[in-house]
Design brief:
There is one protein chain. By secondary structure, this protein is of the alpha+beta class. The chain has a domain of about 35 residues. The chain is built from 2 helices and 3 strands, in the order E-H-H-E-E. Strands 1-3-2 form a 3-stranded antiparallel beta sheet, covered by helices on one side. A hairpin with a 2-residue loop joins strand 2 and strand 3. The longest helix has 21 residues.
């Protein structure tokens, strides 16, 4: 699975702190879901996450 935050680049240009906060929340949600489902985080690329 691959995820991406829609509009992240635009948000970084408008409100960097808000974008970074959203990125952190996104990572926390993924980490919780990955652990619950015995998944594996393969790679993070900016606002994208690659999960197996």
């Amino acid at each position: 699975m691959f995820t991406d935050i829609v509009g992240y680049t635009t948000m970084m240009g408008q409100d960097k702190q808000k974008a970074l906060t959203m990125l952190q929340k996104n990572r926390e949600l993924h980490k919780t879901c990955i652990e619950k489902n015995d998944g594996k985080l393969l790679k993070e690329m900016g606002d994208g996450v690659n999960i197996a």
